[in-house]
């Protein structure tokens, strides 16, 4: 496969990162659907797609809350979870990244990290307790009790993610 060596501009790097994030979100969306969850796309880019340009004119607290809306809400039986999907090629994610702009407002959210190696998950509370996601640790999505289901399905989606992101 030939690749264009046109020199990546900052704008094209931003676009690549947006696309990677949306692909990771689509994989996790489908994973939850296949595990029997109802999935609702909730993030700003879904709920308020044209609102982004107006954010700078809003009160800072309102703009922050809107920007920090979780990507998905998933529901199964009586359980409902906010899901924030992140892609990191290096497989690292910590509280520092989540709260770059200030305190993350959804304490009960789960952060699902898609990387070139696997899919991991921690709650915001676990991140605040000092846990982090990085290569080699055991915060695998497949082991999360609140999302128990057919482990073959989780493995299959993990393989999709690894296969897709291994070359990006």
Give the structure's gist in a few sentences.
The protein is an alpha+beta fold and 168 residues long. The protein contains 6 helices and 5 strands; from the N terminus they run αβααββαββαα.
Distance N to C terminus? 13 Å
At CATH level 2, the architecture is: 3-Layer(aba) Sandwich
Percent of sequence in beta strands: 15-25%
Task: Give the helix tally.
Answer: 6
Helix-strand category: alpha+beta
Structure description:
The chain has 168 residues and is an alpha+beta fold. It has one domain: Trna Endonuclease, Chain: A, domain 1 (3-Layer(aba) Sandwich), CATH 3.40.1350. 36% of the residues lie in helices and 17% in strands. It has six helices and five strands, in the order αβααββαββαα. The protein has a five-stranded mixed β-sheet with strand order 1-2-3-4-5. Strand 2 (72-76) and strand 3 (79-87) form a beta hairpin. The radius of gyration is 16 Å and the shape is globular. The two termini are 13 Å apart. The model has no long low-confidence stretch (mean pLDDT 86).
């Amino acid at each position: 496969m030939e690749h264009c060596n046109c020199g990546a501009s900052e704008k094209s790097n931003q676009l690549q990162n947006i696309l990677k994030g949306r692909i990771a979100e689509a994989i996790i969306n489908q994973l939850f659907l296949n595990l029997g969850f109802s999935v609702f796309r909730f993030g700003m880019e879904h709920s308020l797609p044209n609102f982004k340009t107006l954010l700078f004119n809003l009160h800072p607290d309102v703009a922050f809350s809107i920007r920090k809306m979780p990507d998905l809400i998933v529901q199964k039986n009586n359980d409902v979870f906010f899901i924030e999907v992140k892609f990191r090629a290096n497989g690292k994610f910590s509280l520092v990244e989540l709260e770059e702009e200030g305190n993350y407002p959804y304490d009960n959210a789960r952060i699902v990290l898609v990387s070139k190696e696997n899919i991991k998950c921690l709650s915001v509370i676990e991140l605040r307790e000092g846990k982090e996601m990085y290569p080699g640790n055991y915060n695998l999505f497949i082991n999360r009790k609140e999302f128990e289901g057919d482990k073959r399905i989780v493995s299959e989606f993990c393989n999709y993610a690894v296969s897709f992101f291994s070359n990006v």
